[in-house]
Amino acid sequence: MRTPSTLFAPLLSWFARARRDLPWREAPRDPYRVWLSEVMLQQTRVDVVVPYYLRFLRRFPTLASLAQAGEDEVLALWSGLGYYARGRNLHRAARAAAAAGGLPRTAAALRELPGFGPYTAAAVASLAFGEQVPLVDGNVARVLARVLRLRGDAGEARERAWRIAPGLLPRGRAGEFNEALMELGATVCTPRTPRCGECPLSPGCGAHRQGEPEAFPGRTRAKARPLLIWAAPALLRRDGAVLLRRRGDGELFAGLWDLPSAEVCGDDAAAAARAALDACGVFGQPHLEPCGEVRQVLTHRDLRVLLFRARARRAAAPAGLRWALPADLASVGLSSLARKCLRAAGVVIPG
Ligand code: SF4
């Protein structure tokens, strides 16, 4: 009878042959670069991450340079990558780690820093510092669920995988093993149409033997997604500058610049747009012209933004707001939603 760890024995030699050449895998592994790549890769495809990663590193090549930066500049470089709390936490953690003399070397100590959950802490500790700790992300959970035929939906399989993973680690090679499992899940044991014929684990894989690899993990029942509706006025100055507001802590897209906005609760979107301006200290804006809408799918809900345009009566920006000329928007921390809204309101963003 094969034990779980022997089922995974062919993995490391496969990884040595098949691993993709990715910029963050260059030797010697630098903990800051490993961390940056792991944060960027959360919920985001490799091909999207690579240019962001390279641009970010050109500007912030070291932990110290990131720690010294202002949040605006960090978020401007993150702009378009989504899940902006990642960028803010990365920056906060860089400041804390730099003040303490560098990144801690264990998963337990890394978890004390902002933004380090169990996965990221284990990834940095095992890949960069060689700590003998397991990790489980969506790819790893799927591979383990299939090889070991773990019952339950994706969430349950992930919980089980965290319990099983410590017993699979080959001695002294946790980082390599973790990375190999993630690579197999990303490139061979994919959610749909896994390529079992090319898989080093196929001889011992339970789901493959059963003839239905895609049945693992089981389906999660889809939940109804709430719809959030915002009204957002684009207030434009004579010279083309647009009024922006920085979104506060606890709000969606916190820390990023955006059009003022307010939730539409009834059916009067123009009133909500006016309320959004009032809340920013821009009172008595008489005419708001509807100019389209933008939709965005967020992690747990759908968002619909109804856009309005208006000419600014005053040139001064109320406290906490700023005017941004189109030419300056490339260096402002904007979410991709804010970019879409600005374009829909007729603001031309360069680049
Ligand atoms: S044999 Fe197929 S199902 Fe099993 S781990 Fe490999 S690719 Fe995934």
* CATH level-1 class of the largest domain: Mainly Alpha
Distance between termini?
59 Å
CATH superfamily of the largest domain: Hypothetical protein, domain 2
The major beta sheet can be summarized as: 4 strands, mixed
Total number of β-strand segments? 7
Helix content: 40-55%
Write down the Rg.
24 Å
Instruction: Name the ligand types.
Output: iron/sulfur cluster
CATH topology of the largest domain: Endonuclease III, domain 1
Structural class: alpha+beta
What's this entry about, in short?
The chain is α+β, with helices and mostly antiparallel strands and 351 residues long. It has 15 helices and 7 strands. A 4-stranded mixed beta sheet has the order 4-1-6-5.
Q: Can you give a write-up of this model?
A:
The structure is a single chain. This protein has helices spanning 4-7, 11-18, 31-41, 46-59, 63-68, 71-78, 85-99, 107-110, 118-129, 138-147, 154-164, 174-187, 206-210, 269-279, 336-344, and strands at residues 227-236, 242-246, 257-258, 262-263, 289-297, 302-311, 321-324. It has 351 residues and is an alpha+beta fold. The chain folds into two domains: 4-215, Orthogonal Bundle (Endonuclease III, domain 1), CATH 1.10.340; 227-344, Nucleoside Triphosphate Pyrophosphohydrolase (Alpha-Beta Complex). A hairpin with a 4-residue loop joins strand 5 (289-297) and strand 6. It is elongated, with a radius of gyration of 24 Å. The mean pLDDT is 93. Bound molecules: iron/sulfur cluster. Residues 143, 146-147, 188-189, 194, 196, 199, 201-202, 205, 207-208, 213 line the site of iron/sulfur cluster (SF4).
